[in-house]
Amino acid sequence: MTPGDPSAPGSGATSATRQLIAEELARNVLTAYDDAVGRLRAPGDAVELWRVWRGPLTRVVTPGERDDAWRRLTARVHSLWAQTHTNVWLKRGVAEADAAAALDADLCAGAPSRPGA
């Protein structure tokens, strides 16, 4: 939270005000996500798109809204590439990208902080 944030604890904002702010934030995130999904031009880019938006969606929308966001992404991928089982293909792609990123993080964690160190 930033200074002057009306949703910050002790700011005097009522719970109703905080709820309105949270709802507006969720709408903004969903709108931006839907815009990104609409701009998707290649099925392979959907994996990275989900990995980028998964965190913000998890933090600000309900689980049901997040599931709906996933369904919109899979529908968009299917419209670009009439693959059967688009949902399975996309889940596998996200899992593989997550595993590769985790391996990279593990490798980097064990690397020396300076070349030649």
How are the SSEs placed, and which strands pair?
Elements: H1 15-39, H2 45-60, H3 63-80, H4 86-109
Helix pairs in contact: 1-2, 1-3, 2-3, 2-4
Compute the number of helices. 4
Radius of gyration over C-alpha positions, nearest whole angstrom = 19 Å
Q: In this structure, how is the largest beta sheet organized? A: none
Report the average pLDDT across residues.
85
Listing every helix as H and every strand as E from the N terminus to the C terminus, the arrangement reads HHHH
What does the overall shape look like?
A: flat
Number of strands: 0
Q: What would you call the quaternary organization?
A: single chain
First-to-last CA distance:
39 Å
Percent helix, as a range, is: over 70%
What fraction of residues sit in β-strands? under 5%
Task: Label the structural class.
Answer: mainly alpha
Query: Low-confidence parts lasting 5 or more residues at pLDDT below 50?
Result: none
Question: Short summary of the structure?
Answer:
Helices cover 71% and strands 0% of the residues. The protein has 4 helices and no strands.
Can you give a write-up of this model?
By secondary structure, this protein is an all-alpha fold. It has helices at residues 15-39, 45-60, 63-80, 86-109. The chain starts with 14 loop residues before the first helix and ends in an 8-residue tail after the last helix.
Keywords for this entry:
mainly alpha, 117 residues, 71% helix, 0% strand, 4 helices, flat
